[in-house]
Amino acid sequence: MALTSAVANAAAAAAAAGAGKKAAQVQLQAELNTDDEWNKFINRDGLLVIDVYTEWCGPCIGMVGNLKKIKVELGGDNLHLAIAKSDTIECLKRFRKRSEPTWMFIAAGQLLNVVFGADAPRLARTIEQELQNEELARKGERERPKRAPHELTPPEQEVAEAKEKLQQERRAREEAAVEAARIMRRETRACRLETHFADVCPALVMPHAQKHLRKITDALEPHGVILADKCPILLGKDGVRVLGVEELELATEAAISAIAERPSLALLLKKTPEKDGDVIELCRRALYGDGVKTGDGEPNKKVPAEELRAESTPGVYVPADRHQRAAVLDLLFPKQMVSSLVEPGPPPTAPHIALMFGAWQRRALLAVCDTSRLLHYGFFADASLTEPKLLAKNIEQYELRPEKDFSETIVLMIAVGLAAPELADPKDIPPQGPPEQLLALGPLHVSEDAVVGAEECAKFFPPGYSEPEPKPKQKPKKKKKFSLQTKRHETKEDLTEESNAQSQSIETGEPGESEAAVEGDNDGDAEVEGDVEGEGEVEEDGEDGEEQQAVDKATSPPPPAPH
Description:
Structural class: alpha+beta
Organism: Bombyx mandarina (Wild silk moth)
InterPro entries: DUF4746 (IPR031827), Thioredoxin-like_sf (IPR036249), TXND_domain-containing (IPR051766)
Distance between the termini: 61 Å
Protein name: Thioredoxin domain-containing protein 6-like isoform X1
Pfam families: DUF4746 (PF15928)
């Protein structure tokens, strides 16, 4: 009896020990999903090793066994393990876009180290080293670094600075490309207008200075410039913004408020035929005193531009060069003169990049894409960036394709800025980089920057891509002309042949050709009907199978590669 009781007690103790060991394994790695759980965990004593993950990537499962072994063999109660979801913890937001395993080492609420990658030997060495450092810190022989968990470690800081430098270089390239395109547009427009307006210069008299128009014309006449035309104009905020780009003095708040809501006076100044020199230089010399030298002892005379100034708002504006002249002519005289003589150039294209996805994602892409930033899109045979093969220019054309394949792609041309940001309202400027909602769908390719994107999009969407395709002209059917004599002759011959055939059949007793043809046609119709019915069933089954396969390829991701 005593022996039986002892065995029972031993079994119970063994069971309790097993249960306790299993419970310890369950609690070996904490799971942190909220800010409260995070703040509570990082205040624990000892060394904390936290596996930081994102919802779309998940924690590093392959390292769990190694970590448990290290805890049992080295750490004991001084080592605590956890997994933390960066998507729901504010302190970990800098790790939300990372896909590689991330390990944070924390002690006494301070960030000691961060290790990236699933390198088991390196992780084990780091844990062992940090355990030793923590033991020394407890004894007062070593000082812990003063760094909050949300702050960057020195290696992280180096990586962040390198990324920022790369981003600055990309932005510099993009800005240089935008500026080069702007200068080219201005030069092209100026060259076109010079053909018709070489001896003409526009000017603008502000609302407060219109009563001094006589003073302006009197100053221009000695320099061989006359007033050819004038008209009142209300520029509004958009027009003032265009002027502000050309003349900084007109971009101030005082100038905008003075010009935007009150009509100004647009002048068209013209050089007389007998006068030599550039009309822009002549106007600037007369109104601004450009290039006029005063002798020693002579008092400086006030030029009209200074006399007409009201505090910080100029009274008159004259373009300073041929580029400004073209822009101001477009603004002040768009219909009366410019559009009637010079065809406007193509609208500028915003800086853009190319994003490539599987064609099976087309509906989700077009549903979430901002149409104001979608410049073009198209469907292509594969993921080639050098020699794209166009399949369809829009989703309607693509849906009409009877067969679709997993290799087919859709390419989006997405604007990442504005062609003329200086003319736009700051609130209308889109954020830099590709849209987050598109990146969340997992693109196959994204252009490095807008400069590379322009080169890539030029291959996918060449000039004239958006123009409608010309429909092939149907050739008119030629009608055969038969004369009445020819028709009578053919009818007579047919009747003669038919009568001869009937008489021959009566003599031989065989059915005539027409009767045999009718019987043969009936037999043939029966056979054809049977064949059609049989073939129809086979084709129907085949079409169902092909249609089901096409639907799968058209709306489903490609199957995983065999292992």
